[in-house]
Design goal:
Elements (H helix, E strand, L loop, with lengths): L7 E6 L5 H12 L4 E3 L8 E8 L6 H5 L3 E9 L1 E3 L8 E4 L7 H10 L2 E5 L8 E2 L2 E2 H6 L9 E14 L2 E8 L5 H12 L3 E11 L2 E2 L6 H10 L2 H4 L3 H4 L5 E4 L4 H5 L4 E2 L3 E4 L8 E5 L5 E7 L3 H5 L6 E8 L2
Parallel strand pairs: 3-12, 14-17
Antiparallel strand pairs: 1-3, 2-3, 4-11, 4-12, 5-6, 7-10, 8-9, 10-11, 12-13, 14-16, 15-19, 17-18, 18-19
Length: 313
């Protein structure tokens, strides 16, 4: 199916199947051989699960790093071994006297940059073995804390011992661990009882497709208009336009020299990723700057300005 080549499906995953299950179903519906998802959703979670097709799987690392938004429910009064409602209760506490104001205060305390210890029941690996496999065998190991950032966290509502909130966070944040940690801060224990991912970068509910929507679009011939191109998926990256006579060299894996660049739509920053486009607007590659704006201005024409991270042609 030519119209699906190198595009992205903004899939809505229901609660139940694994993220891998959803990828397999999309491959069958669209008839593609290669596909990969952006960010894993646990089986009980639902929401945005963008799936890259064929060559667009090359942009997964850049899309995975985008901010994510979740709607979650935290149940106060008990902690579980999985930190969500699927696990066994390992501790219980009284919620008597826990006020809305106290919960709001704790939510506020968890806003900003911080370190988070990944849960044992996770896909993180130790010596090549997923932690959840160790956990299922009753093995608990020490995990290194990972830097994360909670950009915003707001309460939606609170009823009895259930707290609904929305959070915008960096990639790699475990919302069930956030619930667990907030429960400890409140002194009553807590676990996550519901999770919906509502945004992954530009992908949101307004443009999402269920598997049924996807199949219907294939059947009625509208599928091409329902998918995202690589250009659309990478629009959050600042653009570099390459000179037409240097486009082929980029496709062959050559780094960008100053003389190969027609224009840059963003100041040069060390460590910043850029999408490289030709004069027709086709995205050729993703590059990274290892220099500053001042250093770029002093470069000789044949000196390398940007390191190639991924060729997309």
């Amino acid at each position: 199916m030519d119209c699906t080549l190198n595009k992205v499906v903004n899939l809505y995953k229901p609660a139940g199947p694994t993220s891998f299950d959803m990828v397999c179903k999309v491959k069958r519906i669209l008839g593609v051989k290669k596909a990969g998802h952006i960010g894993t959703l646990d089986p009980d979670a639902e929401g945005m699960l963008p799936i890259c097709l064929n060559r667009s799987t090359r942009i997964i690392p850049f899309l995975t790093a985008q901010l994510k938004v979740y709607e979650a429910q935290m149940t106060l009064g008990s902690a579980t071994d999985t930190q969500d409602s699927t696990g066994k209760t390992i501790a219980e506490g009284s919620v008597e006297g826990i006020s809305r104001e106290q919960v709001l205060q704790v939510l506020n305390e968890f806003r900003g940059p911080q370190n988070q210890v990944p849960p044992m029941f996770s896909a993180k690996k130790k010596n090549g073995i997923p932690l959840y496999k160790l956990a299922r065998n009753g093995i608990t190991i020490e995990r290194k804390a990972v830097p994360i950032h909670i950009h915003s966290i707001e309460m939606i509502g609170m009823e009895d011992n259930r707290v609904d909130f929305v959070v915008q966070c960096s990639s790699g944040t475990y919302i069930r661990t956030l619930c667990h940690d907030m429960g400890e801060r409140l002194g009553c224990y807590a676990h996550m009882s519901r999770l919906v991912r509502t945004e992954v970068g530009i992908f949101n509910r307004d443009t999402s497709l269920t598997l049924e929507n996807l199949q219907a679009a294939v059947d009625d011939g509208s599928i091409s208009s329902k998918l995202f191109s690589q250009e659309e998926a990478l629009q959050f990256l600042p653009a570099i336009q390459i000179k037409s006579d240097h486009a082929a060299a980029v496709g062959n894996g050559k780094a960008l020299t100053r003389q190969s660049i027609e224009s840059i739509a963003h100041p040069v920053e060390t460590g910043q990723h850029y999408r490289v486009s030709d004069d027709a607007g086709l995205t050729l590659a993703v590059v990274e700057s290892a220099i500053t704006e001042e250093e770029y201005a002093r470069l000789e024409p044949n000196e390398i300005a940007f390191k190639l991270k991924r060729v997309l042609m």
